Amino acid sequence: MPYDDARRGEKPLNEQAKPAGHVPALEQFPGRTHDIIRFGDLDPQGHVNNTVFATFFETGRVAFLREPGNALSPPGTTSVLARLDINFLKELHWPGAVEIGTGVAEIGRSSFTFLQAIFHAGACAATGRATMVMIDAATRRSRPLPAEAVARLEKLRIASGE
Question: How far apart are CA 141 and CA 120, in angstroms?
Answer without folding.
Answer: 38
